[in-house]
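Suppose you are handed a protein chain with no further information: no name, no annotation, nothing but its sequence. What can you learn? This example shows the usual starting point.
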Amino acid sequence: MENALITGATKGMGRSIAIAFAKEGVNLAICSRNADDLSAFKKELQTINSQVKVFTAVADGSKKDELLKFAAGAEQELGAITILVNSLGTYAYAGILDEADGAFEKMMDTNLMPAYHLYRHFGKKMIAAKHGHIFNICSVASLNAIAEAGSYSVTKTALLGLTKVMRLEMQKHGVKVTAIIPGSTLTDSWKGMDVDKDTMVSPEDIASAIINIYKMTPGANVDEIIIKPTPGQI
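A reasonable first move is to predict its three-dimensional structure. Written in C-alpha cells, the prediction is:
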C-alpha cells in the first residue's frame, strides 16, 4: 500500500488532496499546529475509508525541527513514504516595500523551505526504492509575478525552480516530480473578500488533477500542470 505525507493538509487544497488520496486507499501522514483540527480531520478521513492508516502529529511545518520529527514519525508508523505533497503555504497581499519586517522570512519558511527539507529527507530513500512521486503546490505567481503579493511571488517562483531541479535529479531513478500551478483557488486566502466561487478553481479540482497524475503508468510523468479559472485570474 502507498503512503502519502501531505503538508498543509487540514485546510484548503491540502485537505482536499488528503481526502482524495484516502478514497484511493492511500495511507496518510498529516500534521497541523492545531490538535483539535487534526483529531477531527483524522476521524473524517477514517470515516471516508476505514482501511487507511492515518498518522497525525502536532507540528508547525514551517519549523525545520518539528517538520523533520513529523517526517520521521510518519516513516516509523507507516513505513516508506512514497508520495510527498508539499501543500503548506501562506499568502499575504502586500508589496515588498510595504510589508512588515520579517514577512519575507516567514514566507520563505512556509512556502519554500519545507519542500526543500522534506526533499532532502526523502529523496535518497525514493532513489534507493526507484519509486515515488513528489507534488509541489506552486502558483501562477511562479510564472507571472504579482507586484501586490511580492514576497509570495518570490517564494513561489523559487518553489517552481526547486521543483525543476528535483525533477532533473530524480527522473533517471524512476521517481516522478510534478509542479501543480493553480490560479485563483477558493481557499482561506480569500476569506473576507467578495468573490464569486463559480468563477474560481476549487480545491477539489486540484485534488482531482493530482490523483489522475498519480494514477498514470510508470512511464508517464506530468512535469507541470496549470489550472486557472475559466474567466481568467481574479
